[in-house]
TrEMBL record:
It comes from the Eukaryota. GO terms for cellular component: glucosidase II complex. Residues 433-534 form the MRH domain. GO terms for molecular function: calcium ion binding. Residues 341-380 have a biased composition (Acidic residues). Keywords: Coiled coil, Disulfide bond, Endoplasmic reticulum, Signal. The gene is PRKCSH. Residues 307-327 have a biased composition (Basic and acidic residues). This is Glucosidase 2 subunit beta. The keyword Coiled coil applies. The keyword Coiled coil applies.
Length: 547
């Protein structure tokens, strides 16, 4: 039957005897001691392309039954390069049956399956070279060499994992201790807070008690001073008013009359150069004359600013340009030029001094510096003591209040830390408060675990937040293998920036890479001993069935 079957790949159709030899390499179980793997291993011989798993189906002492049961053939038709079985299982080591897989045992390295169409195609696919047995090409067995390289890598990896594991043990112990310490500190602070809170309330009561008499005494002092000031002002106004009265009372008859008012241009409301009777009357208080008493009580308060202003003006140097239509006021050729500013000032000062001595000053210049007389006198001794006592009580209250505020801040911080998930065994606790940086061509990236991720352009520009700590984000069976940071700076025309931090086992805490697979969605890779949760054998072996 096999002779009539189509030969799928054809090239070895006439080499049945050769295949037989290949097929029966023997069923001897060899005991191989591999010095390399330092372990005892066995090599189980079987038809080419058959995995150890399928070995029991290929018993050369019996006819072969296709694995789908579709046919039974003499065993010497296995791997004879004719496809006898519908499921192709009679040709595990040739390319005779379509869509089959060839199993390279790759002794010394990792087994591999390749499409059986690649068997004897002139390319070495398996490191043991068994896929090219036709002689078309000579493939060297490179499996042991490759195995040695891989093993070396695995050994190094194992060393890292185991060292990381040891470090993790310390992290776990420290993390748990830290959590316990924080718990204890929180309780102590809560108790302390009650004490300082009580002290604060006492200090507040003492402050209020000290401030009440202080305020009373200070208010009394200020009120007395206000009264003194008011009396002085009244006296000043009386003096100024009396002087003004005598100036206005041109004929000295003890009355200021309308016509006398009319000689004073300050009452020229419409500024037409003439004080009309009506204008004078308005300012005099709707009467035709006033005596000194009435002038002081009724007229002077109304006109003093106006009168004062005109007097001030009169002090100014004469205007250079004569008033329009008033030739008398034009400066004559002989008029001496106004004195230089400095001289003028000196003169004014002298005048003022003289003035001070001679007559009461009606010129209450608002811009004049205050004299000692205008300064409120010192508090009396008793008030001073009350102020000192209140100052002390205020300082004590401020101090007590600060203690409460400080303790509140510490409590908040501890509660936040205790509320944070630092891993199944608090192994990530030590990362809290630290930051790790990585520079790429364009940016400096920063990861501050349990706080935020950020990005700063290396060539100027401000920091951009790439997300704030949100939660652990690993898969259900490995929750603590990834972190999620969200609600970062908004991306123009896009979402808020966010970052996923993928954790791997390593013997130091290090930010390994930062990328942006989608716009404004970042991925950081971070290695840490906290991720080295399992120990591995220091002398690793391949999980290889073909050793
Ligand atoms: C900045 C950086 C980039 C980001 C763009 C989006 O340039 O934050 O990472 O892709 O903004 O506009």
């Amino acid at each position: 039957m096999a002779e009539t079957m189509p030969c799928v790949r054809g090239i070895l159709c006439n080499f049945r005897p050769f295949l037989y030899r290949e097929m029966f390499l023997g069923l001897l179980v060899l005991h191989i001691v591999s010095p390399f793997y330092n372990t005892a291993a066995v090599e189980i011989l079987r038809p080419r392309g058959v995995s150890l798993l399928h070995k029991p189906f290929y018993d050369e002492s019996k006819p072969f039954t296709c694995l789908d049961g579709s046919a039974t053939i003499p065993f010497d038709q296995v791997n004879d390069d004719y496809c006898d079985c519908k499921d192709g299982t009679d040709e595990p080591g040739t390319a005779a049956c379509p869509n089959m897989m060839y199993y390279c045992s790759n002794k010394g390295f990792t087994p591999k399956t390749i499409p059986s169409s690649r068997v004897n195609d002139g390319i070495c696919d398996c490191c043991d070279g068994t896929d090219e047995y036709s002689g078309l090409i000579l493939c060297q067995d490179k499996c042991r060499e490759m195995g040695a390289v891989e093993l070396e890598q695995r050994k190094k990896q194992a060393e890292v994992i185991n060292k990381g594991f040891q470090m993790r043990q310390t992290l776990v112990a420290d993390g748990k201790q830290t959590m316990q310490d924080r718990e204890a500190k929180l309780n102590a602070l809560k108790e302390e807070k009650q004490v300082v809170e009580t002290k604060k309330q006492e200090a507040q009561a003492a402050k209020e008690a000290a401030e009440a008499p202080e305020k009373e005494a200070v208010d009394k002092h200020k009120q007395a001073w206000d009264e003194v000031k008011a009396a002085r002002e009244q006296e000043r106004q009386k003096e100024a008013g009396t002087v003004a009265f005598s100036e206005l009372d041109l004929d000295g008859d003890g009355l200021v009359k309308l016509e006398e008012f009319q000689t004073h241009l300050e009452f020229d409301d419409d500024v037409d150069g003439e004080v009309t009777e009506d204008e004078a009357k308005t300012h005099l208080g709707d009467v035709t004359e006033v005596d000194l008493d009435r002038f002081l009580t009724e007229t002077w308060p109304e006109i003093k600013d106006l009168y004062q202003g005109e007097k001030d003006k009169a002090k100014e140097p004469p205007a250079e340009v004569p008033a329009k239509g008033d030739p008398d006021l034009a400066p004559s050729e002989e008029t001496p030029p106004p004195p230089p500013a400095e001289e003028e000032e000196e003169r004014e000062e002298e005048e003022e001094e003289e003035h001070d001595d001679d007559e009461p000053d009606i010129d209450v210049d608002k811009d004049e510096p205050k004299t000692d007389e205008d300064e409120m006198p010192d508090y009396d001794e008793e008030t001073k003591q009350l102020i000192s006592a209140a100052d002390l009580a205020r300082a004590e209250y401020t101090e007590a209040n600060k203690k409460v505020t400080d303790i509140d801040a510490q409590i908040r911080q501890l509660e936040k830390q205790l509320g944070t998930d630092f891993g199944a065994e608090a192994e990530y606790s030590s990362l809290d408060g630290q930051c790790f940086e990585l520079e790429t061509k364009e940016y400096k990236y920063k990861l501050c675990p349990f706080d935020k991720c950020s990005q700063s352009p290396k060539h100027g520009g401000s920091e951009t937040t790439l997300g704030r700590w949100e939660s652990w984000a690993g898969p259900e069976d490995n929750k603590y293998s990834a972190m999620k940071y969200t609600k970062g700076q908004n991306c123009w025309n896009g979402p808020d920036r966010s970052t996923e931090v993928r954790m791997t086992c390593g013997i130091e805490n290090k930010l390994l890479s930062a990328s942006e697979p989608n716009r404004c969605e970042y991925v950081f890779e971070f290695e840490t001993p906290a991720m080295c949760a399992k120990e591995v054998p220091n002398n690793p072996e391949f999980s290889h069935e073909e050793l």
